Amino acid sequence: MPAPTAPRDVRPAAVPAPPALPNVRSPAAPLPSAPPAGGQLSGRAVFVLVFLPFALGHFLSSLMRTVNATLAPQLVVALSLTPGQLGLLTSAFFFAFALAQLPVGIALDRWGPARVQLPMLMLAGVGALAFAGGQTFTQLLVARAVIGLGLGGCFMSAVKAISTWIAPARLPSVQGYLIAVGGLGAASATLPVRLALHYMDWRGLFVWLAAAAALTGILIRALSPPQPPSARKAPLLEAMRAVYRHPAFRETAALVLVPHTVFFGIQGLWISRWLSDVARFSEEAVGYLLYLGMAAVIFGAIAVGMLTEWAGRRGVRPISVAAAGVALFLLVQLGFVLDWRPSYQLLSVLFTLVGTVTGIEYTIVAQSLPGALTGRAATCLNLLIFLGAFAVQAGFGLVVGCWRPDLPGHYPAPAYQAAFGTLVLLQLPGLLWFVRRRARNPLEWASHPTSP
């Protein structure tokens, strides 16, 4: 394989950065037109030209991914949907999103995130317009899939862009900020969307979302600085085999992958239906609780990044932090299985707060795999996560649909208990495998603490 233009570990000296994005680094090779002179970006420039535009794309992706949780009552009435159809309609986003990951990974390596995002966000805008005008279940299903396909590069483009300019030691915190922006987008899909529905219907909402997608793509293309030249990558299949065979990738996926798919699949739709069917909250109360839950995602994402860095300075590996978080996430889900009545409100918010720990697997993979594999590894991880989220969201609806609703259309608590119980059983083996392996090799899980 030809030698790279500039080795990954050879960089100019870092320049000062503002508190929001510390340890900004220079690219591997000088930029021909990046401000300021000398091929370097100041911390403020990285924040304005790199982080904010790409984070806005991730914000929009999270909003459109979770908006069906708020619109579910209107969609059910408009199209007379069963739980299975509702789950399939919403999960089509995940399936198309997953299919986009491998082509997006190749495109990002070849053309860079800014050039990839513009056409993809335009495609998402077309899908949103088609969703706004759809009249049948099939039309909305196809439109939802087009939206997912167009938004399939938002997170990976943001990760690639910021990883070019941010020092590796600070990636957990900065990626935490990025995930927090996604949480803000998901929060905007709850109470703010309900307020917007006082002035327009769900079709008008998707017209505005289509315009937002197009404008975001244009903004990213206009502001993003040129990416530095990178080494030629190995062929796709060869790189994928190397990723899937890497011990760090396999141990991370075994522990965190299924909980991550559960978090995405449930918080994007079924938490709202559970609050309506089992807890019997009004639509206004459900919207408010979803808003609190998504606000908890923002706090949780930042807290997980900070906690991971703090634990690393004390010799605790990120995989151990992930294991503790997964165990706590399973306890929260047991509350749904056991129909924990003292506080349905607290249970729904805890699900989204604790579930944010599953995002730590991106950091683990980025820190553990060789630099030549990190981009493809994140792409492979996304592929598995969103295929799993598709299966979780659609399968959960099929399980709930095995019961009959009452006259107002509410499905009984045992339906949701059975569905959540199935999810717990699917996640438990990964945690037990981790605990068993750690008990056999306790020294393997300690890392050398670094200086603060």
Describe the structure.
By secondary structure, the chain is mainly α. The chain contains 16 helices and no strands. The protein has helices spanning 43-79, 83-111, 113-133, 137-150, 154-165, 171-188, 191-196, 202-223, 236-245, 247-277, 283-312, 318-337, 344-355, 360-368, 371-400, 413-440. The two termini are 38 Å apart. Residues 1-39 and 448-452 have low confidence and may be disordered.
Largest sheet: none
Class by alpha and beta content: mainly alpha
Whole-angstrom Rg: 22 Å
Q: Which segments are poorly predicted (pLDDT under 50) over 5 or more consecutive residues?
A: 1-39, 448-452
Give the tags.
globular; 73% helix; disordered N terminus; mainly alpha; 16 helices; 452 residues
Summarize the structure.
With 452 residues, this protein is an all-alpha fold. The protein has helices at 43-79, 83-111, 113-133, 137-150, 154-165, 171-188, 191-196, 202-223, 236-245, 247-277, 283-312, 318-337, 344-355, 360-368, 371-400, 413-440.
